[in-house]
UniProtKB/TrEMBL annotation:
Main location: membrane
Family listed: Belongs to the outer membrane factor (OMF) (TC 1.B.17) family.
Keyword annotations: Cell outer membrane, Coiled coil, Membrane, Transmembrane, Transmembrane beta strand, Transport
Protein name, as recorded: Outer membrane protein
Organism: Constantimarinum furrinae
Classification via Pfam families: OEP
Gene3D superfamilies documented for this protein: Outer membrane efflux proteins (OEP)
Length: 481
């Protein structure tokens, strides 16, 4: 038992350490964001609502079935439901009904509603796809920003190590009288400046990690970190494609255009729906009703105390004799109500038929709805045209940005190579005392800045390349980094 407890403690401790030291890859971040981001969840809810609307449209074709039941107590002058006579009474009455209705013709409204529901569902799916693309880009940009900040931190940290070595060496040479004390002060100033830059770089890394964690809805900021991946620039020919080809692909595949086209289709269906109100509608119905009451019923019967009665029925005209006859003596008797289910059986009835509604005049409501729908169709046509123009502009911008970022990256590579040679030359001269500490520090500063600029140009080009690939129609989940 003791050994089992120890093993469980070790397993728990190991899992806790692994959870605390987990480093998120870009793919894990994207998948997590697509599953947990609030905006994506809201778009997914819109898809669910659209599916419910589609179910409503299917239900419009089906008959309606409604039941009704009522139970009431009446006191005072009310109609006796058994005799039809108004009486001052206290009574309880219940009634039940079942109604079936079906649309035979409704101006094609049900058909149009069904078509609109399908388009609404499609539009919700396009919106979800667009939101997923946007979130993927947000996550990728935030992830690359962390990598950039970490790379910059590595640059200033590694260069400060060199400065520390130069500081120790310069201090020894100053003590030996080989170098002036001003060189030592200059190196110390460089060291202080670099330590400040390290603190700024560390803060930038921390802030960018928090920003990504918030985007992923991760609250454990302290233990959140990403994998230190060295992303390479992958270009499978996208930058060499003609701008017209990229624009054509974007207009065919991008969700923005599909959403605008779908909205135009919905507007046209809305116009047909508005026009359907001009047509008459025909509806069939079938009703079944029954009722019961606790009111006593009345019936005629033989008087048990005086079962027969002799009455004068006429006179013989020739003799004047009275004619009498004996017959049953009937009286009106009050009886208990019939049993509940027997009343329901005896008092039921049905009605059925069709109902025709013809719109004749409705205060211009239908005509104005048609006019509004026509205006909305024109509006959606303009929005579609504007969406295509905006997309074309955005593609041009992304294309120019990607080309410019590539040139900036290539220039940064050349600049780094030159600055590295210049820095090494200045270092060699400083080591043999042929240059002072100020000139050496300036050369080192230019070299550091060039490395930082190369990092910025690299990750900027990677991100803009991915934007261009998205416009070309590559799925967000299939982007290669």
């Amino acid at each position: 038992m003791k050994n089992l407890v120890i093993i469980l403690i070790l397993l728990f401790t190991t899992s806790l350490v692994e959870a605390q030291t987990k480093k998120w890859t870009l793919k894990e971040c994207v998948v997590h964001a697509l599953e947990n981001n609030i905006s994506v969840k809201q778009s997914a809810l819109d898809v669910e609502l659209a599916e419910i609307t589609k179910s409503d449209a299917v239900g419009n074709y089906l008959p309606t079935l409604n039941g009704s039941a009522s139970n009431s107590w009446n006191t005072g002058l009310t109609q006796n439901v058994t005799s039809g006579v108004l009486e001052t009474q206290t009574s309880r009455n219940s009634s039940y009904g079942l109604t079936v209705g079906v649309d035979i013709f409704k101006g094609l409204e049900n058909l149009r509603t069904s078509q609109r529901a399908k388009l609404t569902e499609l539009s919700a799916q396009y919106n979800l796809s667009k939101m997923q693309d946007d979130i993927t880009l947000f996550v990728a940009n935030a992830y690359l920003q962390i990598l950039l900040n970490k790379a910059n931190l590595e640059v200033v940290t590694s260069q400060n190590i060199v400065t520390q070595e130069q500081l120790q060496r310069t201090n020894d040479l100053v003590d030996a009288g080989v170098l002036p004390r001003g060189d030592l002060l200059e190196i110390r100033a460089t060291d202080a400046s670099e330590k400040q830059q390290i603190a700024i770089a560390e803060n930038a890394v921390e802030i960018s990690l928090i920003s990504l964690a918030q985007l992923l809805l991760i609250q454990d900021y302290e233990n959140f970190d990403i994998a230190d991946e060295d992303f390479e620039i992958i270009d499978e020919g996208i930058s060499s494609k003609q701008i017209s080809e990229i624009i054509a692909s974007a207009q065919e595949n991008r969700s923005e255009v599909k959403i605008a086209e779908n909205n135009l289709d919905i507007a046209e269906i809305d116009l047909k729906l508005a026009r359907s109100q001009y047509y008459p509608s025909l509806r069939g119905f079938f009703n079944y009703n029954t009722r019961e009451s606790n009111i006593a019923r009345f019936a005629t019967g033989i008087d048990p105390n005086n079962p027969t009665i002799t009455q004068e029925i006429g006179v013989v005209q020739s003799t004047g004799d009275v004619v009498v006859a004996t017959g049953p003596n009937t009286v009106l008797q009050e009886l208990d109500p019939l049993p509940y289910f027997e009343q329901l059986y005896l008092n039921d009835g049905i009605s059925y038929g069709v109902q025709l509604n013809v719109p004749i005049f409705n205060g211009f409501a239908v005509r104005n709805n048609v006019k509004r729908s026509k205006i909305n169709v024109r509006r959606q046509e303009y929005l579609l045209e504007q969406t295509k123009l905006d997309l074309e502009s955005n593609v041009y911008q992304a294309y120019v940005d990607a080309k410019g970022s590539l040139k900036a990256y290539e220039a940064a590579l050349v600049a780094l190579e030159s600055q590295e040679l210049a820095y090494q030359y200045a270092k060699d001269r400083y080591d043999v005392g042929l240059t002072n500490a100020f000139d050496f520090s300036q050369s080192k500063l230019r070299y550091d800045n060039t490395k930082i600029e190369l990092n910025r140009a690299k990750y900027d080009y990677i991100f803009k390349l991915k934007v261009l690939e998205l416009y070309f129609g590559i799925s967000a989940t299939e982007l290669k980094f």
